[in-house]
Amino acid sequence: MLFIEIAGLIAFSISGALAAFKKDLDIVGYVAVGVVTGIGGGTLRDLILNRTVFWIGDPYLYSLNICIATAVVTYFFGRFIENRRNIVNWFDALGLALFAIQGYAIAFQMHGNFEIALIMGVITGVGGGLVRDICLNRQPFIFRGELYASAVAAGLLVYYLSDSIALSFATSFTLRAGAIKFGWRLK
Question: How many C-alpha atoms does 185 have within 13 Å on its Cβ side?
Fold first, then answer.
């Protein structure tokens, strides 16, 4: 799960920092949006589950430092990326699928209940993007009718039935990719 956490932190921090570019924010804005996007979903999950917030309980603050470093690197190199909006969506899809699995696993380990784990997995997956969009005064993806939270829920159902992280990730990411590439929607 450590790989999933690190990959999710990097993916969501990049998506947050690139979204900050569109709002013409300075480096502090990049870092702030990158960090809240990277740690937002896990923070919400841990607060709801009444457990120590993952990045606060880390004596080395590696989660926070990964997000800060990723946002700073994105600040300096992100401006060279063509079609930033599309890249934001792809990194968001990656973070979404990764963090949902992690959130599900943490909640299931704590409670052994599929419904609680499913809800916490969805919150962990969508929370960072939700906080990012609110900070940037954008309508959150989760409320746009796109396959977003539903893509994660489907992937987590696959995880529950198969106990396969790879199948769960593939399901969530593929459904979200279909929404990005082909405009798949719920409405």
Answer: 6
